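The authors assume throughout that readers already know how a fold can be written as discrete tokens. The format is easy to grasp once an entry is in front of the reader. For illustration, here is how one protein appears when written out as sequence plus structure tokens:
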Amino acid sequence: CSQIPSFFLAPLAGVFTDRWNLHRTIVATQSLAMLQAVILVVLTLTGVVTVGHVLLLCVFMGLVNAFDMPARQAFLIQMVEGREGLTGAIGLNSSMFNAARLVGPAIAGFLIAAVGEATCFLLNAMSYVAVLAALVAMRLPPRAPAKPPQHVLHELREGIRYAFGFMPIREILMLLTVVNLAAMSLTVLLPIFATTVLHGGPETLGLLTAAMGLGALTGALRLAFRESVLGLGRQIAWAGALFGLSLIAFSFSHALWLSMLLLVTCGFAMMMETAASNTILQTIADDDKRGRVMSFYTMALMGTAPFGSLLAGWMAKVLGTPWTIFIGGAVCLIGALVFYRRLP
């Protein structure tokens, strides 16, 4: 529910991202996200929260994220003065964003076990105060006015033609989609793998999730210190291949220590592939179309999750969890090899 809006609304949001004042847009979306978090805290603390409430709040958050994610990605360029620091800034931003996607659930799992869901939701709501304070404190240099807007559908078609007509952007987006679809087989089925294959419980799942987060954090730190985008295309290819191979090996594992080691590699490779793709896309995209390009990045990163989750669940029911993860890894490996052959 929280990610389907990202798939359907992200392209349209990208059009407005290229039009609007990004600073004000992000302040607005983060304020709405904080409102959603506060409502969830109140409902939980009062004990009246229901599944319906959670679903509605997830849909609301998905609508907010559909506009927030492309805007935040495109906004980074406006915050950096001078092109010499752009690569490092993009790499650091994309690394932090993608590391949080993998490390965050691991931290949340331990917090829920220690202090409960309500306190975890409260900490989440309070975190927005720092975000909004930083945004309000920003003093940005004036930007040249954007070109006069045209009809929304015209600009949407223009963005699609640009993104999928320019071979490097098209190939990166397609591989990113394949990798994230493959990753869903691991993300969705990891609890089942922990119980039915490794014969563990919540502690086993926590260790597996933490291992994946550790790998992601390692990959984030490695990418953050890069000074140039040169060579990132090959890095995307080998990171996708490493992720596929790690998934294949993980599907055969029956030992906790080996599974954790392989998940460290999975997290590292997933981070490198996703963050390197983000860095190249933001670097090579034209300024007046960056919002639309990053909206397709949002679709590939977040919008494919619901479909990949459903597919992984259906395949696991028919073929079993290990075989589903194995197939996901094989598809990812094939996609990485195709990308490498087509790499300019």
Summary: The CA atoms of residues 40 and 339 lie 42 Å apart. The radius of gyration is 20 Å. The chain has a mean pLDDT of 83. DSSP finds 13 helices and no strands in the chain.
